[in-house]
Batch of 2 targets.
Target 1
Amino acid sequence: MHDIRAIRENPAAFDAALARRGESALSSDVLALDEARRAKIQAAEEAQAEQNKAAKAIGAAKAKGDNEEFERLRAAVAEKKAEVAAMQTEAKELDAKLTDMLARIPNNPAEDVPEGADEDDNVEVNKWGTLPEFTFTPKEHFEIAGVAAAMDFETAAKISGSRFVVLKGAVARIHRALAQFMIDTHVDENDLMEVNSPVLVRDEAMYGTDKLPKFGDDSYQTTNGWWLVPTSEVPLTYSVAGDTLDEAALPIRMTAHTLCFRSEAGSAGKDTSGMLRQHQFEKVEMVSIVHPSQSDDEQKRMLRCAEGLLEKLGIPYRTVILCTGDMGFGARRTFDIEAWVPGQNTYREISSVSTTGDFQARRMNARFKPAEGGKPEFVHTLNGSGLAVGRCLIAVLENGQQEDGSVKLPEALAPYLGGKLTLSADGKLV
């Protein structure tokens, strides 16, 4: 949500920020609606004052025994009361229109975000690891002999339709091990607080984390109004909605492992093979609630937490900063981490780490009390994947594949797999 006062004070800067995202100028539309709203509020207040004045005169007329004046004033007060009510209703409607307009406008990009139109204009900022060399043509994850039978898309389609998968046996255990490894690393080494959060949330939680009103089609809603979370960013971030925190309580750093649900609206025909793009998937999420002065450093910290997981797993990756045209709606700045997937001979996104500044905090009214006193200020919120479990499974399987159809698994998973670090060609842990 944007600060209307900032738009009033510098509409040119607001339009310039939109232009960087490839959006049309909107300050004139916003300010026209804001002016109409303020004018209606002022008119209602003036009419209210006139109503109050006339109401006092009624008592004076009655005291004098002037029935004719009494009836005239009483009729005038009733008319003015109806006029005030109508004006207040119009002011509320204009306020709702302004709020809705502001809620649909993307966040302003940070100054250091590179200009660009799409993913081709993202800028690489880091690369780690040596790409594996194979004496054979590497397969995609679902084609590897030791994986194929345990990654059951036909049964999933029978149960739920397309873009679902049933994992079985050793592959299901490796998937679970990856999630446990991520959570344990975040808690034991990265100083994040583990949270077991709901995956059904209210409208307010989706709105407060900028998923509504603009992106309702990207998520699933139950018949009684709950939303299935697209990521646990929603419940973790919204946990501080309406709060005024002590500055000493910041930063708040959380992590959660949950199921996530996305309709993948607009992705028809894209990544249909394998389990790269699913309607239901698991993700370990990181969320930080911080003082504004800590925001940029916290994003770097969160990025290293996510990168560190891939390094422990020995997965080559590269990190890019998203350009203005590829950045998400609520983000001020986003770094994507892309893991190497040999079966596709390319890097694929496995984590996005974003700072939203006070964009979400304004929507959900989350503030803190400065230690030195003064008015409460909005917190800054950040979120990042740490990591997408299914995509991490893909990277582990494809990078560790052997010519005979077996898979060598990362040493970091040994405690979670009973020390067995090979997925055999017949799908067993040995």
Target 2
Amino acid sequence: MNTIKSYVEAHKTRFIDELIELLKIPSISADPAYTQDVIDTAAAIKTSLEKAGCDHVEICETPGYPIVYGHKHISDDLPTVLVYGHYDVQPPDPLELWESGPFEPIIKKTDIHPEGAIFARGSCDDKGQMYMHVKALELMNETNQLPCNVKFMIEGEEEVGSESLAWFVERNQEKLANDVILISDTGMISNTQPSITTGLRGLSYVEVEVTGPNRDLHSGLYGGAVANPINILTKMIASLHDENNHITIPGFYDNVEELSAEERAEMAKAPFSLEEYKNALDIDDVYGEKGYTTNERNSIRPTLDVNGIWGGYTGEGAKTVIASKAYAKISMRLVPNQDWREITELFKTHFESLAPKGTTVKVTPHHGGQGYVTPIDNIGYQAASKAYEDTFGVPAIPQRSGGSIPIVSLFEKELKSKTILMGFGLNSDAIHSPNEHFGIFNYLKGIETIPLFYKYFTELSK
């Protein structure tokens, strides 16, 4: 433990500088204008893994963006840890809300991060958290503390659905064979209270289009006489929740996992201040499904949210027009036992049925994934728990997350192994938002904690 701490302390400036250089590359997978940047990031990850001590590293071509694969093999008699991460990032829009350039990383002190945080797109999700594992491998190699075999699989399409990853995993099961999968793409409760994510929600993401007249119309000459697609779309969306914020799609809740009162009581033990939560978001009250707490609403309950809506004239000044079309993007976060394909079809059937005469509706599914739960009696979970307790000084709390990592259920199906989610981010790190950041403390603490996971997992595997 002292060797780990001293190595991190001795090399922390270089660790930070290397991450900053990686964050300067705008690897936005959703925008084809950044294709070369995404490819350049894959090359940078390959170089980093080679320098960290991998025996072999390769850039694997896929139908989409490449996957960086690397391994360090010690012995066939030792367990193998497969590290997954992603090097692509979300688009930084809206740019005007960033206090500094999204790809011009800077370190600033905050109330939560008095030692400083790196502000840049991808700093927490997931370049910063992924790079902790690269540096942890370097540490274990340089200090002769790597106790088992390790493989890396770093992809470039996580933010757009990981379609090529599924293709790659299905074709490379022997190459990816492992005893446990380790991911840092989640968070923890606070810098003094670590937690381990034991559940993820699934996801269904769709785009809807409402069409009315065959062209944009003068709102004076036609207003009140034909269906206005924007008006219709907003009514249709509003009808998707009832007065208790319960989703109204028939069959939506048929397979929802209902947690027992005992399980909900265990969840409630996690430290949480509703006032601090509201203050952090600058809101005077919370909002959600009746009968559930805030932490339950954003983790164990399914949701439906509009992620974007547009149509008509949105430029400067006025233009009196009834738009021919209106659009929205909608995501549904799902809980275990809800199949995302089934939910997508239920949404499509219901939403199309809401369209009044004089309009047509088109629903286009984008991507999705299943929910996932890791049992806490798994030796991978136990190894992570012991590692957190060593570095933070307090036991980690198991916690379900509201987020989605759709590939986790794919891993269990194709590779037959459990996934352990060792996140070091905080809810306040603004992932997917302007001014995303990752605490220096969190970054370095991750590099310090990950080697202990390897130690304990190897010991518990004997």
